[in-house]
Each structure stands twice: as structure tokens, then as C-alpha cells.
Amino acid sequence: xxxVKSWRTSVCVVLCAMLFHSICNAEDAISSYSELLKQIGNTxxxxxxxxxxxxxxxxxxxxxxxKEFEQKEAVPFLIxxxxxxxxxxxxxxxxxxxxxxxxxxxxxxCLAYTRDERAFPVLIELLEKGKPLIDINTxxxxxxxxxxxxxxxxxxxxxxxxxxxxxxxxxxxxTLMKELQQDYDIRTFAAASLGxxxxxxAVSALVKTLKDQNxxxxxxxxxxxxxxxxxxxxxxxxxxxxxxxxxDIAVSRAMKKMTKYRLNIEFNSVNNIVTIPDYPELGIVQYxxxxxxxxxxxxxxxxxxxxxxxxxxxYKEKYDEYIKTKKDPSQLEETRSRTxxxxxxxxxxxxxxIIQKIEQGETDLVPVxxxxxxxxxxxxxxxxxxxxxxxxxxxxxxIFKEEQSTASTEAKAA
Length: 414
Fold this sequence. Notes:
Elements: H1 4-18, H2 26-45, H3 66-69, H4 75-84, H5 99-113, H6 119-129, H7 136-154, H8 170-180, H9 182-197, H10 203-208, H11 215-227, H12 234-243, H13 248-259, E1 266-268, E2 273-275, E3 285-286, H14 296-327, H15 333-344, H16 351-359, H17 366-372, H18 383-397, H19 402-413
Antiparallel strand pairs: 1-2, 2-3
């Protein structure tokens, strides 16, 4: 039996080989994409997990081909594959294989990498509706035919339950459909693809799928939201993490990605507790033995609820140190750069305070804003440009609300 490692290696070999295939025009682009999807589908259809995974919003499978995926000539072809399946799917009719299904999912990823304006409505529809190519009745009938063929081949004198093979009951058909997960899988691909696309219009739909009944759809919706710069999604992510048991690793990855802040966490395996040295005020988190990874959502939730007042204190310390080295002519540029980097280490939560200093004339901090916003504002922007950008975009970048700081203060006083 193939191992997970072997089929991953196979996919990498296929994809890297495709890198050297020249795409010169629309016809060549379509041919290349078609062959690529077919080989991926063939490889992953025999995946021992029975699922077209792994997936991630950074899509390691496609990194070598990123430039080729920006070809827009094949967009209509990719959309057709997503909506109708590949034109070679008849080769697999009756064989109960996942190849056409896998091809649709990877076509969605390819479409996202083109960054074409036609991609968004297609991927949103895929996320919201799923639309598996094989419905339950079709699948039911194909399974019956396959059972009949096998019985005639291996047991010519025996039939299932008598003279005829009875149809699968709803429980059997439902179980097999659950294994194939066609609807869930295709929406998982759609969520990952929207993360690649990074279109802010996808936020609302992805927030809704945080409550999806399928864990992989929820998982990749979290990771997709982490790719789209909108800090307003932090609260629904943390709420859904608790209510709908979203994987803690996905939540932690998303929070680090969005906030650009890394909580320093220490585990005490003897007492099964976790502490946060940078924020001892957040207290300790107790966990059951063997389940330490499940503490991340609790830690990030505490940080989100109480972090504003604690951050303000840390920011003042780091900013004062930065000004001190800046004004000291004996300090080397390396030292000044380090103290500025210390401000960067506070992450996106510090943006409002940094913008306030820029407004007061501290324009040396503009590069810090550029780093924290993935260069959404240029490091060479002037004060007016930065303040105008902030006015237009601050709702997406503010993490801590004013009432959070007030609530935290009142809680301590009580």
C-alpha cells in the first residue's frame, strides 16, 4: 500500500516536472493545465487516506509553479473544470474513483493563483454550494452495478441476498458518501483557494463557514481568513474555535499570521500547566495530560480579551528605548535598528499607537507600518499618505477595541 509520504513525493515530482513545460498561448496553457490536473487526480485518487489532502492556504504543492499559474489564458478552461468536471472524466465512469473530483479541487487552486477577476464569484459559489459532480443517487446506482459485476466475476452461482442484488439502504449509501466527502472536499478546496486569492470580499462567506458541520471546511476557512488582512475576523475565529471545536493548531497559526505577534508560551509537563511569561497577568492555563495542544484557543482568547492595556505598557517601554537610542549620537545604527525592530515585534496590535506617533511627526516609524501591513502602505510613504491610508483602512487593522481596555480595568478593580 502506498504511504502518505510516497504519494506526496509523487505529486511533487509531477508538479516539478510540469514546471519545465512551456506555456506560450491559450491552447498550450489549457493543454498543460489539463495534463497537470489529470496526473494530480490519478496520483491522489490512490491516496491511502481516501481523501484529496493535504491542503493548506500556502499550498506547498504549487509553490514551484506559481509563475506558470499566473497564466490567465486558461481561466475559462479552469472554470469549466470546476463547474462541470474535466472533459476526460468519462474515462473513469463506473469505477468509483475520485480523479475528476480531485481535478476540480486543484483547478480551483490553479484558478486562485491566476489572480483573475473572474475567479472570485466562481470560488464563492463553490464554497457556499459545494456542488459535487456525483449525487447520492448516481453514486448509489454505480455502486450497485459494481457489486453486480464483482459478484458475477467471482461468485457466478451466488447473488447477494437471493436472485438479485438488493439496493444499498440509505445507511450504507450515506456511509460511503461520507467517506468520499465530495461536497465537503470541494468546499475545503474553495476555502483554501479564497485564501490564496486574498480577496477581502470573501471574508463574510468564510466567517459563515467557520460554523460548517465539516471539520476540514472549518479548518481551512480559518487558515483562509488568516491570509486576508481583516482583524475583525479574530473575534469570530476565537468564538468558533470554542463553540465548534476548530483545530487548535489552525487557530494558533491563524492568530500568529494575522497579528504578526508570537506569544511566548511555556509548558510545565509535570503540573500540566501553561504560562505566558510576557503576560503573567493572563494567569495559568491547566490542561489534561496528553492534551497540551488544546490550550492555544484559551490562551489567545485571554490575550484578545485583556491584551490592550498590557500591550500599551509594553509599547511605551519599547518606544522610550527607541527614542533614547535615536537621540544618542553615540549609538550605532545597528542599535537603533534593533530598537525599531523591537517595536515591530509587538505586531499588528501596536499599529494604532505607531500611527499616533507618526501623526505627531515620528515618520521614522513608517517602515514599521509597512512591515506590519505586508507593504499595504509603502515604507517610503510620507506622513500625509500614511494618515490618509489609516483613515480609510483602520477598521480592518484595529485588533483591540476601546471597550476591551475599559472592561479589563473594571475587572481588575472589582
